[in-house]
Design goal:
This protein has about 280 residues and is mostly helical. It has one domain. The protein is built from 14 helices and two strands; from the N terminus they run H-H-H-H-H-H-H-H-H-H-H-H-H-E-E-H. The chain is globular and about 60 Å long.
Length: about 280
């Protein structure tokens, strides 16, 4: 299969995933084996890239930002969100158990025989895995709502939310709820409050630039510990699909749809592996 077509299809799957509440696009990127390259590509948006852009050195700029990788990926993501958002909503309303079970099977399969499977389960891997378990404490924390937060706090919210967006298994919108700025940002989008939105976006940009470099450094220094951390996040995200309250999970095991969906998810992971996708 042509590499650009393959990247477009991977972006398409990531876009579909972004429309599914409780599953992050970072999780799907990790499952599809392009997370590391995506982090590396984003981290290439630096001062040198901006210098190439200002000087209109087109070829150097496109090579620096890995344009041949990022363009088909973004195109696929846009198509996935646009074409499948109504399908996901339909399935969530009519067949929620099958859909959640399918994603659960896909994520579990990725841990067993997919792209997230570690090279070795050494002490570094288990240290990273145990560190990820601390994330579950966040999901047991009650969210707050701030009526008039400072602009520094709004900047901080954007900084943290975009970091969560990059990490597999963590929802950026959940972090905003936890920080008490979700309603504020949604209202700012509806009202086109430029001051609030620009402060929030600036925080997102600074957070993105900072955090991708941290992840990239971890890949270079201790990849197995990072894979252990990601494995824990993905594993935790499976029960979180079934969360209805901070510590309440509903798994209707009498519903045959759960077993069908879980089987479809595992089968999908096997097909992706077989196709070397």
């Amino acid at each position: 299969m042509n590499e650009k077509i393959k990247l477009t299809l991977k972006g398409f799957l990531i876009g579909i995933t972004e429309t599914m509440p409780g599953v992050s696009g970072g999780t799907m990127a990790l499952i599809l084996g392009i997370y590391k390259q995506l982090i590396s590509t984003i981290s290439n948006f630096d001062l040198q890239a901006m210098e190439y852009l200002v000087k209109l050195e087109k070829n150097k700029f496109l090579q620096k930002i890995n344009f041949s990788f990022i363009l088909p990926l973004i195109l696929g993501m846009v198509l996935g969100v646009y074409l499948f958002s109504f399908v996901i909503l339909f399935l969530l309303e009519n067949y929620p158990h099958i859909l959640k079970a399918c994603f659960s099977g896909l994520m579990l399969g990725s841990l067993v025989f997919g792209a997230i499977k570690p090279k070795s389960r050494d002490n570094n891997f288990f240290a990273g895995f145990l560190l990820s378990l601390a994330i579950i404490l966040l999901y047991g924390t009650s969210s707050i709502e701030l009526n008039d937060p400072s602009y520094l706090y709004i900047f901080f919210s954007g900084f943290i939310a975009v970091c969560a967006l990059i990490l597999p298994g963590i929802s950026g919108s959940f972090i905003l709820l936890l920080l008490g700025t979700y309603a504020l940002i949604i209202k700012a989008v509806n009202d086109l409050n430029i001051l609030i939105l620009s402060t929030f976006i600036l925080g997102c940009v600074v957070g993105l630039i900072t955090f991708v470099r941290v992840v990239r450094l971890m890949y270079e220094k201790n990849e197995n510990a990072l894979i252990g951390f990601f494995s824990g996040l993905v594993l935790l995200s499976i029960p979180l699909l079934w969360k209805v309250d901070p510590w309440v999970f509903i798994l209707p095991i009498s519903d045959i749809g759960i077993y069908l969906g879980f089987f479809l998810g595992l089968l999908s992971m096997l097909v992706l592996k077989k196709l070397n996708f």
